[in-house]
Amino acid sequence: MLMQRVAVLGAGRVGLSLGLMLKSRGYEVVGACCRRVENTERACRLLGCPEASRLEFVPVADVVIISTPDHAIASVAAELRAAGCFRPGQLVMHTSGARTSADLAPAAASGALTLSFHPLQTFPRCETVSLEGVLVVGEGEGPALAAGQALARVLGARWQSLRPGAKPLYHAAAVMTCNYLVVLLDVALHLMAAAGFAEEPARAALEPLVRSTLESVVHLGPAAALTGPVARGEVETIATHLRCLDPQDRNLYSVLGVRAVELARSRGLSEQDACRLRALFEEVTHETVQRP
Fold first, then answer.
1. pTM score > 0.85 for this model?
2. Which CATH number fits domain 5-164: 3.60.10.10, 3.40.50.720, 2.30.130.10, 3.40.1550.20?
3. Closest Cα partner for 18 from 93, 81, 85?
């Protein structure tokens, strides 16, 4: 069956982005809703669909996208099943990176194909997001996976299916890559500010370094991409850094430093230098654990 009609439940940045991308590829968005009325109005305006109750538009949709917060997925599915909104052959999918298709069991019980469909992409502004060349990770049963893969192909995305038990590890990797990279850069910008840089010049100064580092990791791998004082075994430089950082940043620097030493060892750092660096870092992390 050709699936052309789409419903979006939780039309925030991810749900609205998917709705807009599918609309641009000829799909009809039959309805969208959010928790807040003003967000529902905006989503319906952008998607070109009428404002209506989800009990009206979900039954006529071929593809139902549930893009609510993770904790709400199962309850939304249960409410829709109780209202008789699902039907056999319908594709019902959620966009959580961490949750599995088991949260959609109420839809499966009604004969729908159920799937977790997670684009490995950040969605800062829904109107500008593209999935061209982006990996979509899917989890579910055979027919649902086939339908999800076809949908990913429509969006220009690459596809990878995943077993349910692997989703927490996969999602943790995504969070480390995206969210915690932002946190690390925020820490770096605060250090630049303490050194006397204004915010805009600091961001401009770090941008080439961030881009070239990511390029090196992608093309060479983490071990070969690692440069700097840990890779060179410069113990005194590291000690100077640790002395100037506040306790929270010093602990973060040290936790990451321990992992950096292991990477550096794999590319030739001597065991003597590695031991001296580990001792520096572990002294800091031990102090943090012992602090009341």
1. yes
2. 3.40.50.720
3. 93
